[in-house]
Fold this sequence. Notes:
The protein is α+β, with helices and mostly antiparallel strands. The chain folds into two domains: 3-57, no CATH class; 64-177, RlpA-like domain (Barwin-like endoglucanases), CATH 2.40.40.10. The protein has helices at 6-16, 23-32, 42-57, 99-102, 157-163; strands at 3-4, 40-41, 64-71, 94-97, 111-118, 131-138, 153-156, 171-177. The strands form two sheets. Strands 3-7-4-6-5-8 form a six-stranded mixed beta barrel. A two-stranded antiparallel sheet has the order 1-2. Keywords: Membrane, Transmembrane, Transmembrane helix. The chain crosses the membrane at residues 40-60.
Amino acid sequence: MENFVNGDFIVFLSSLINLKASPPIISIISSAMPMHKHKVSVHLLSFQALVFFLSIFIHFSHCDVGTASHYGPPFLPTACYGKDASEFPSSNMFASAGEGIWDNGAACGRQYQVRCISAAAPRTCIPGQLIQIKIVDRAQSTVSRPSRDGTSMVLSTTAFQAIANASASLINIEFQQV
């Protein structure tokens, strides 16, 4: 088994990632290491370096998982904006908030990124599609009835068809407020 002494590990680590360690990095790493000449196992240091670099690149998801259905016109009046059609995005990428995210009306105007993750029927979701929608209404009080009640969101038909097959009435979604 090969062992390294303080500065040797820094040179080894720099060559592993094919970068030259800058003097501030070397001084930070060196100051964290004891000044006496401990021999350190390559496996332990390699493992620590791997954990460090993976922690830089791995993100923990802050998304919620729920369900979505869809609805079509008429959309007015809404619980958020009454008869003001100017609040609807021109892209028609909007939704009504289910009770879980309605938050006593605070959901009005919130933007969410949404993607389809599964459905009862295979190949319902359009892979890799992520949309951004605006909450314009409360699902419980929409003028048009949704394709399915009790969902996290009721997407406009345009938004729904951007992430899933239109023939589905219910999909499982991952969503995150932006």
